[in-house]
Design a protein that fits this description.
This protein is mainly α. Helices cover about 80% and strands about 0% of the residues. The protein contains 15 helices and no strands. The longest helix is centred in the N-terminal third of the chain and has 43 residues.
Length: about 300
């Protein structure tokens, strides 16, 4: 009986703790999303476009084994590298499928989007980024095969062009990205994210995203009220009333300290003298014990 009671008590304590942390969690989740929205509003030059894209990104995160914060970082990076907004999610789907099929992590997603973004920004296919993609587990042979078909060449010719360093003039970056996207959304990689989402880790990731969505949307009115309150308080602290309060506290402290003795270097002299005397006493005591009491 006592064992069951202890178990129930422990469970209730955990539930109580979780319920107590919900407001704090709601503020943290909403504050993070608010900052993300500001970032995408700047990148997309429109609050409305930012809301639409973030909704798409959230839905993508909620049904895949990858989490929203990781995907927003990857999307921000891709946008900064020059990808059009409509290019991002299809390419991330390809990256996600390839990563999932290879058993990779969100770190690999970040690395792949960085490599693809580097080439997009430079406007050419580069050997360094290709090596990084290959090291991440991407089978570039499949990509080359699709490029060859698109350009009316053989796979060997495409490999030759890329290995010769003529990627900038020989292979259009958009053709490479289209081929990469096609590889990641067809054949053996098709549906890889959905399969990964069925695993324990994938399911936990989906649960976390959807739980955060519940907290974010459910507590959004409370967060907006707290956010406005915080902003108004920050304005108050910048205003004349707070300056008067600061001056008043400073004046009160000045009056309180007016009657205290003046502090100078001589103030500490008695303390130093007393400490030296104490050290001398302990030293003599130690020597006495050593000479007379220790055999």
């Amino acid at each position: 009986g006592s064992m069951i009671g202890n178990i129930l008590t422990g469970v209730l304590r955990q539930v109580s703790s979780a319920l107590m942390s919900i407001p704090q969690m709601a503020i943290a989740v909403n504050a993070s999303f608010e900052q993300t929205r500001v970032a995408f509003k700047t990148l997309l030059e429109s609050g409305e476009k930012a809301d639409v894209f973030l909704k798409q990104l959230w839905d993508f995160a909620a049904t895949t084994p990858f989490e929203f914060p990781e995907l927003t970082q990857a999307a921000q990076r891709m946008k900064a590298f020059g990808f059009a907004t409509e290019e991002i999610l299809p390419l991330m789907e390809a990256v996600g499928n390839i990563t999932s099929a290879l058993g990779g992590s969100s770190e690999i997603v970040g690395r792949m989007t960085y490599n693809l973004g580097q080439m997009k920004a430079m406007g050419k296919v580069t050997g360094r980024e290709l090596r990084d993609l290959a090291m991440a587990g991407v089978n570039l042979g499949d990509v080359y095969e699709i490029i060859a078909k698109k350009m009316g060449k053989t796979t060997a010719e495409i490999k030759g062009i890329l290995s010769s360093g003529r990627g900038a003039s020989g292979i259009d970056i958009d053709i490479f990205l289209e081929a990469f996207k096609e590889v990641g959304t067809s054949g053996k990689f098709l549906g890889a994210m959905a399969e990964q989402a069925k695993t324990f880790n994938g399911a936990m990731s989906t649960i976390r995203d959807n739980a955060q969505g519940l907290v974010r949307n459910g507590f959004k009115p409370m967060f907006e009220w707290v956010s406005k309150l915080t902003y108004q308080f920050s304005l108050f602290m910048q205003g004349d009333q707070f300056a008067k309060l600061t001056a008043g506290v400073a004046g009160a402290m000045k009056q309180l300290t007016a009657g205290l003795p003046t502090i100078s270097g001589d103030t500490f002299a008695p303390l130093v003298e007393g400490a030296l005397k104490a050290i001398d006493v302990f030293t003599r005591l130690g020597l006495f014990i050593k000479d007379n009491l220790i055999p």
